[in-house]
Specification:
Elements lengths: L3 E8 L2 E8 L7 E5 L10 H9 L3 E5 L17 H12 L7 E5 L1 H11 L7 E5 L7 H12 L8 H11 L16 E4 L2 E4 L19 H9 L5 E6 L7 H10 L4 E5 L6 H4 L1 H18 L1
Parallel strand pairs: 3-4, 3-5, 5-6, 6-9, 9-10
Antiparallel strand pairs: 1-2, 2-4, 7-8
Helix pairs in contact: 1-9, 2-3, 3-6
Length: 284
Amino acid sequence: MTGSTVRTFEVNGIKVRGDEVVAEPSRGTVILLHGGGQTRHSWKGAANVLAEAGWSSIAMDTRGHGESDWAPDGDYAMQALVDDLAAVVDTLDTPPVLVGASMGGLTSLMATGEGKVHPRGLVLVDVAPRIEVSGSRRVRDFMRARPEGFASLEEVADAVAAYNPHRPRPRSLEGLKKNVRLRDGRWHWHWDPAFMTPIDDEPSRMIDHERLADAARAVTVPTLLVRGLQSDVLSPEGAQELLSLIPGSKLADVAGTGHMVAGDDNDAFARAVVDFLDSLDKLD
C-alpha cells in the first residue's frame, strides 16, 4: 500500500481533485463519492481499510466542494455531476466499483442506470430514489444556515453537534479546517454558495424520483445498499423499494448510525463494503 496522492482531473472545463490510495497488489479500484456538503476527506478511514483489503481507491471532491473548482456557470444539477463522474471513470484502465453517499450515491446510481458509466459494482450509502422529505429538508436547512459564516472553529463545532447530536464531539477542532475556509476573518463552509441556491421548493433539484427509479431498474451490476439504522433520510420503505427495483441487490443496515454512516461508524461501514467487494471476486 502506498500513501495518499492528490490527483487532478480535467473534466468538463473544471478541475476536480481526488485522493488516490494504491494497494499493491491491487484487486481493483473503488471511486468514493461524498454527499452534499462533504469533502473527499470524509472517506479517509474507509480508504485505509479498503487498502488493507487490497483495494485501491480514489476519493473525489465533487465540483464546488473541497479543493475542486467551483462551476463558473453555477451548474450543480445532477446531470453535471453525472458527466463529471463519467469523465473521471474514462481515465481509468479498468471498470471501478462506485461507492456513493447521499448525493454521491444518486450520482452513481444515475450514471450507472443511464449507461454513462459501466462499473464493476455499485454501493449506495443511505440513499435511494425515494427519500424522506423531512430528513432531506433537515440536511438542506443545515447547509443553508449561517451564510454569514462563523467567528470561530468552536462555533463550527457547535453547529455540527446540533445537527448530529449522537456523534461524539471531536477532541481537536483542527479536523474541521478540512470542512471550512477562512475568508475575511470568518470561517465559511467549503462549498460554493451557488450549490445551495434554491431552484424550486420541492422536490430538490437533486431528487427526481421517476428518473432515479428508471435508472435503478436498468442497473445490472451487483449492488449493495448501506443504510444507517437511525437515518431520517432513507426509511425502511425507501430501502425496500430500491431492493425491488434492482433485482439481486443486497441491504446492510448499520446499527448506531444515521445518514452519515461512514462518519458515524467507519469500522462497521467498511466491513460491509469489504464483504461486498469480496463477493465480487467470487463472481468473476
